[in-house]
Amino acid sequence: MSCPQDWPEPIVRVQSLSNSPVVPDRYIKPPPDRPTYIPSSDISDHANIPVIDLQGLSGEDDRLRAATLSQISEACREWGFFQVVNHGVSPGLMDKTQQVWREFFHLPMELKQAYANSPKTYEGYGSRLGIERGAILDWSDYYFLHYLPSCLKDYNKWPALPDYGREVIDEYGKEVVKLGGRILKALSLNLGLGEDFLQNAFGGQDIGACLRTNFYPKCPQPDLTLGLSSHSDPGGMTILLADQQVPGLQVRKDDAWITVKPAPHAFIVNIGDQIQVLSNATYKSVEHRVIVNPAKERLSLAFFYNPKSDIPIQPVKELVTPDKPAQYSPMTFNEYRLYIRLNGPRGKSQVESLKSPRNTL
Questions:
Q1: What is the torsion angle, in degrees rounded to the nearest 10, for the CA atoms of residue 106, residue 229, residue 339 and residue 173?
Q2: What does the alpha-carbon distance between residue 46 and residue 187 come to, in Å, rounded to a whole number?
Q3: pLDDT for 285-341, tens place per residue?
Q4: pLDDT higher than 50, residue 358
Q5: Which reaction is the catalytic activity of this chain (predicted)?
Q6: Less Cβ around it within 10 Å: N or C end of the chain?
Q7: DSSP letters along 51-104, please?
């Protein structure tokens, strides 16, 4: 099974539809999947994902370090999502990177079209996930690019405009990769493993890393569609730089959708399916989705910190016991991510399909 070279239907850029009076039928979700639009002013701080100060991980205060690790452990077990502040990435670099992408998405369409992507690799300027003909689509455009391994990093596939953009994106990727390594150490320690265990399971320094910048144009009927359908992330861990001004990310918690209110210059971190598999479901990836706004566009940067693509991922033997046998069959990340490239986002159906036969009885 492999991805086709091209999309099954002509691509329509959602940005070109944002001034329409109504949402076209292709974007209208079935009634059970439609969101309730919530104005930003009505989003409560009390129903937010945990916010964790990472400064405690790098200091010499053992008590503070232990408390920070405990906060991360609890967030992973209870939410699968948390925000991090004092994470080591410069706020100025975060702002500048968002500005690069805003400028790109506001370029004339003919300049952006030069970077149009295909389902073969997804790299470039895109407007849909999945190749099902006639599928109900999401209200978003995006740009996907590879950062690691170095052999996949091709600056010619990165936007040349604005002219300072490639340099900024490169520096941003370098800093977020460092952050990903720090968080992965914390997850390893919290699982009772050596601090480098998960990094080595991902392939050591030979990991995969990629960036998807999501652009959600304003939408005339935000209660009929979604910017991104419900899904869990197929990779290892996602480090999201959300739009500070326009909330949109919703996380599923106890059968309710919680709208995340981003902390200033925070990153939102979430567990992906690969860590669910490696941890033998001690940590679980969590369904999330994106709602859209009737008056404002929204932009977010999702940085995916993934295992090397050809390493079979399976439960770590130290986390397999007679009481908790291996929950999942081995599969490489290359094989795994093909599912979403063919089918688009579909809840947690992919990781559930990996369960070992004895765990599905």
A1: 40
A2: 26
A3: 999 999 999 999 999 999 999 999 999 999 999 999 999 999 999 999 988 887 777
A4: no
A5: jasmonate + 2-oxoglutarate + O2 = (1R,2R)-12-hydroxyjasmonate + succinate + CO2
A6: C
A7: EEETHHHHSS-HHHHHHHHHHHHHHHHHTSEEEEES-SS-HHHHHHHHHHHHHH
